[in-house]
Write a structure and sequence with these properties.
By secondary structure, the chain is α+β, with helices and mostly antiparallel strands. It is built from eight helices and 19 strands. It has a seven-stranded antiparallel beta sheet, with no helix packed on it.
């Protein structure tokens, strides 16, 4: 209230006492009083003596002074009054020009008391403005708190996403380094092979060329001897003296070694079969010994094979038999599932092997941990320590993921399946080994020995009798 009174006090000093409005172009009289220029001249109009309207002091018109400071102050006062009027207008009901005192909860709007009693707001709920402000401030606080929590969560996710982006970048850098390193090794192998073959080619060329050049010298020596003999015979033929001719003939007959053996052309060729026959293929076959991991020759463990399974003598293939064999019930043997483990387990390193599935209509294969239960049925999914892909009749190719299996797509029907195990890297990957297209990758932190595992599948339709065949190194 005191502030309001102070505001009214200073604005009153900017009011002209003649027009009772804010000063316009104010002038100061000699007596010190101020008036609008228009007002004072109108007041003095038709007067013989100019007197101050307030103190009645006689004033000379030429002594009027423009009061610019008062003019600026009056302009500010005019703006203040205009703002107060606008504020009052905003606080008044536009329809009834009454103060807005209530908040209609039904229509969510400010109203006056007349609005409350009108037909438009009949049966509506009303709140005093102060109470409504408290309620909605409380709601806004709740919204603010929720937004702060959401902001915190979003910031956390932003941080996590940035971390994932960084991980992807680092992973890409590691893979780039790995790719460059692996291809550098292959380039080195090929370069060494190339240089070795080129050295062998040069040696072979030198050896054969030396023989041919030695024979060429002999041929040239024969040619010189023959040419010299021809020259002598020509000279003898041209001899006109009969006695001299006969003497020369006797001498010619007596010459030793005039008959020489004419050397044949030495026809030697480079062993091109060594250098150009299937050069790429033979080089590739030799590169297998340098590949890491090289395709492994995995064998089967008969002590784990289900009694319904039949293993080949070399333990590289397995099929479903027609009868259940009488085998010892050892702790390692599978009883419920018709499957068999590989003979070798892995606790480290990178390993790759291929399995020929051919035209089979059903099969399963992959990797299983050593502790998997072998005496009863178990979940053939990753959460049970079994990482498999399989071909399901009428369903196609799937991966045994948890909690439900994942359908796989393949542009071509695989005849061979490649299995890649990176123990420390924590992954099992499957490929169509015909074209090395990727099928699926499981990720897991391995903590125990893992084994290759094979399910040749049922033969209900009599079309699945073919075995699963583990490809040896000679099959690649």
């Amino acid at each position: 209230m005191a502030s309001r009174q102070q505001g009214d006090s200073w604005t009153s000093e900017t009011i002209c006492s003649i027009c009772l409005d804010f000063f316009t172009d104010p002038v100061m009289l000699e007596c010190g009083h101020n008036f609008c220029r228009y007002c004072i001249f109108r007041c003095w109009e038709n007067k013989d003596i100019n007197l101050c309207p307030e103190c009645r002091e006689r004033i000379l018109e030429k002594n009027l002074k423009v009061n610019r400071a008062l003019a600026n102050l009056a302009e500010k006062a005019r703006l203040v009054k205009q703002n107060q009027k606008e504020i009052k207008t905003k606080r008044d009901c536009a329809e009834h020009r009454e103060g807005l005192k209530l908040f209609c909860e039904t229509d969510k709007k400010l109203i006056c008391f007349i609005c409350r009693d009108s037909r438009e707001h009949k049966s509506h709920n009303f709140l005093p403005i102060k109470e409504a402000v408290e309620i909605y401030k409380s709601q806004l606080k709740s919204c603010t708190d929720n937004l702060k929590m959401m902001k915190s969560e979003v910031l956390e996710r932003e941080l996590q996403q940035k971390g994932k982006i960084y991980e992807i970048r680092e992973q890409a850098n590691r893979l780039q380094t790995l790719i460059m390193s692996e291809f550098t090794k292959m380039h080195q192998i090929l370069t060494e092979k190339e240089q070795r073959l080129l050295r062998e080619l040069r040696e072979e060329e030198r050896r054969i060329r030396e023989q041919m050049e030695k024979n060429l010298l002999g041929i040239q020596d024969n040619l010189k001897y023959i040419q010299d003999s021809l020259t002598l015979l020509q000279k003898q033929m041209e001899e006109e003296d009969e006695l001299e001719f006969l003497k020369e003939e006797v001498c010619r007959k007596g010459r030793v070694g005039e008959e020489r053996q004419i050397l044949s052309v030495v026809d030697l060729t480079l062993p091109t079969i060594k250098f150009d026959r299937l050069l790429q293929y033979t080089t590739w076959r030799k590169m297998i010994d340098s590949i890491n991991p090289a395709p492994a020759s995995v064998t089967l463990d008969p002590n784990t094979a289900n009694p319904w399974l039949v293993l080949s003598e070399d333990r590289t293939s397995v099929r479903l038999g027609g009868i259940r064999r009488q085998l010892p019930d050892t702790p390692t043997r599978f009883d419920q599932y018709a499957c068999v483990l590989g003979a070798e387990g892995f606790t480290s390193g990178k390993h790759y092997w291929e399995v020929r599935v051919g035209n089979k209509t059903e099969w399963r294969l992959g990797v299983a941990q050593e502790s998997i239960n072998r005496k009863r049925g178990f979940n053939l999914r990753s959460d049970s320590g079994c990482w498999l892909v399989w071909l399901k009749p009428r369903k196609g190719y799937v991966a045994g993921t948890s909690p439900s299996e994942t359908s796989l797509t393949s542009a071509a029907k695989p005849r061979k399946i490649g299995v890649y195990l990176d123990y420390e890297g924590g992954q099992v990957s499957f490929y169509n080994a015909d074209n090395m297209s990727h099928l699926y990758t499981f990720t897991h932190t391995f903590t125990e020995r893992v084994f290759p595992i094979y399910f040749p599948g049922l033969n209900i339709d009599c079309k699945n009798a073919a075995p699963l065949i583990i490809c040896g190194a000679s099959d690649h």
